[in-house]
Each structure stands twice: as C-alpha cells, then as structure tokens.
Structure prediction request, 325 residues.
Amino acid sequence: MTMARPALDPELRELLADMPLMSELTPEVLAHLRQLPSTPVESLLEHRQVDRREITVPAKDGTPIPLSVLSPAGGDHSTAAPCVYWIHGGGMVMGDRFSQIDIPLEWLDRFGAVVVSVDYRLAPEAGGTVLVDDCYDGLLWVAQHTAELGVDPARIVVAGASAGGGLAAGVSLLARDLGGPAIAGQMLVCPMLDHRNATTSSRQYCGTPGVWTGEMNAFGWRSVLGDRADAEVSPYVSPASAQNLSDLPTAYIDTGSAEVFRDEDTDYATRIWAAGGQAELHVWAGGFHGFDALYPHAHLSTTARRTRTDWLTRLLSRDPGAQGH
Prediction:
C-alpha cells in the first residue's frame, strides 16, 4: 500500500511533470548518467568578473584531488574575503565540482566570497571515509593558504547540497575532532545524512518515481559502505550516526516537506539544539529533493535561496569572536 505523502507545491508539480523520473539506480543507469555532459561552468562565469584557478592537492594516499578556486576579479583586496568551501551533490556516486555551482556563485556575487569547490572521489570506486577525507584535505589546503587566497580565516563556511551537504556535515565533525580548521558555519542544503534510510520520509518516497527516491538512496549508501554493519559505519560518512553533536559550527539546514531527507534533516537540527548548539532549520512546504537547484526561478526556490543568503549575511557580518558554536 502506498503511503500518504505531503502534496507538492503547485508550481513545482507542474514543472516536474516534464522531467523524466526514475525509481531506482543500477550500475548500468549510473554509468549512463556519468556519461552525460558536465555542468557548463563557463556559461555561469561568462557574465561575471571572476578569476578562475584550477589546482590539485594530495589526498592522504597521494591521489590528486582537484579544486576550483573562483575569486571576484578586481575586488577590494585590502579586506580579506569570506570563503565558501563547496561540496557538490550527486548521491556520492556522480557529479563533479561544478555541480550546483550556481548556488555558491550567488554568494560570490553578493559577498565577494572566494568559492572553492572540491572534486572528491566517488563511490563505488572509492568507499568508506575516502570521500569525506578528500573533502577535509581540500579544506585543510584552503585553511593553510588563506593569505594567498585573500580569505579571512575566521569566515570560512563549509557548504554543500544533498550528498555534498552530508559531506559538509562530516567535514565539520572532522574539523571539531581533529582540532581545526576553524569553520564559521555549515550550510547544509537538503543534506544526505543517514545511511540507515529508515525514517518515515525515507519510506514515503519509496516505490514511486522521483528526483531521489528511497531506493536510489539505498543504492548510494551501498555504493559507499558496501556490506558494512551499522557499528562499522564512520559518523564522518553518516553524520546522523554521530553520538556527539556538541561544539559544532552554527548550522543552516533546509529540506523539502516532500522528500526522502526531510526527517533525517529535521532530526539532525533537533539533536544539535539538544547538544546546546545552534542551527537554523527550514522545511519548505511542497518542496521535493533539490527543487531549488533544478528549478531556481520557481517562487519557492527563490524564497529558499534568498533565505539562505540572508542567513549568510547575518553570519558573515558578525564579529568572529562573538559567533560561538
């Protein structure tokens, strides 16, 4: 029997009607999706005054991890800029450092932020903690090169969407437990946080085609974790399994009411509050997974994006010494 589900926002429902949807991912479908053209970042940069630098940093095992550094051209270099460290989505099995890059580019426009986007390795070719370790190693490079980048070390924000949101949460946990780098805030956009895939919203979005279904989520997690038992899963990979959510950077968490990740995302915010931390949570009524990335000009999407930017405005304008965690 199909479970009842929250209704989609009417405008989004109409837009989604023209999109081909799937119920499940398979290795064959994943191989096909990976062959599709990458995000054309050049078209996003052509009307912006942006300096672009491509570098690689070594992972712990020596593998080169690509980073794209996008900085406002001709800006005021007398004041160090904020930095958005961007981690892309794609279920941990697809995508690249330019996926959803239009989201942080809005913050480059608004705040003069330096955007650094990381091309972490993907599952199933890489698994376990490799993905989050790659992201953390990229952040370490940023923190070690703030002067060169013109970045204010007290205003580094870790941000990501979907799988990237989950990895951003994992990076924030790693930074806390390993003693740095300092993170001013974590922006978790519809984050993929819980490998157990067992919430009510996970079950609601099984058995029907969608942008990201419970079955697709299970495929993504199997690709990363293989046959590991729950007790063997690192909380840095699956942040919802972390026992301790205290002393984390202030968090912004958003999700849709009509998506797989709704309940694990709201629970994560609740547990941060319970641990004495700060989180701002938004559940967008009628939003499906990734609605604002797919249809950025829909009314609900523009509201969600503006609300995130408003939060960043408040965060980045504070005295770093008064931010707290």
User: Anything to note?
Assistant: The beta strands are 50-58, 64-72, 81-87, 114-118, 151-161, 185-189, 251-256, 279-284. The two ends are 44 Å apart (CA to CA).
